[in-house]
Amino acid sequence: MKTWNSALARCACLMAMLAIFGVLAVVRPAFAQAQSASNWPSRPIRLVVSWPPGGGADIVARMLAKHFEANLRQPIVIDNRAGGGGTVGALTVVHADPDGYTLLFASDAELTIAPVVNAAANYNPAKDLAPISLVSSGPFMLVANPKFPPNTLQELIAYAKTNPGKVNYGSFGPGTNGHMLGEQLKAIAHIDTIHVAYKGSAPAMVDLIGGEIQYAFFCRWPHLTWSRRERSSRSLC
């Protein structure tokens, strides 16, 4: 019992991990270039979002773009480049002209996780990108389809143990924090569940609502927005 309670406590700590899904970055040479340009910006700015429309990062990026447009007096063009756990968007900016007109709205997935676990992420965030600002962060929640029998984390673990290999969970991409949390939960609780990867939180939430996946880890406030509007998902932890 002591070991079981200890595992649950560790799981609870995992759920409280912060999700940094709003970091602005620019190609490093462009940062100094833009700072020294007295007429910057003189044309529209492209804001690359590494995730598809409708997800948490996309929503925050569009809110930020409106603020930028009002203050910079130039259009901000949102360019969604989803895929590869955020690496497609990051590489788009890394390979862009270093002129200060291509910014990256990034998350910790493509800045800290992908360069370590994804061989396709052939970039160095510390050298290839210059951070501008942390925009937002929030804790993760364990979310389930309302028809999924378990109502708590403990019940989910018990259910998965009774049904090995028959329960699945979704994430917003391979190597993302949602994926890492799912695999950590499996390792700590000794359960066998199937991982289903998506290109972002929005398509993952759509399939969670539709019952294609049974649970997932989402950042808190986008999930609350979706669940209050649709009333078709619930949090377990």
How would you describe this protein?
The protein is elongated, with a radius of gyration of 19 Å. 45% of the residues lie in helices and 24% in strands. α3 (56-72) links the parallel β2 (45-49) and β3. α1 runs antiparallel to α8. It has two domains: 45-128, Bordetella uptake gene, domain 1 (D-Maltodextrin-Binding Protein, domain 2), CATH 3.40.190.150; 140-235, Periplasmic binding protein-like II (D-Maltodextrin-Binding Protein, domain 2), CATH 3.40.190. It is built from ten helices and nine strands. The chain is an alpha/beta fold and 237 residues long. Strands 1, 2, 3, 4, 5, 6, 7, 8 and 9 form a nine-stranded mixed sheet that branches. Keywords: Signal. It comes from Cupriavidus oxalaticus.
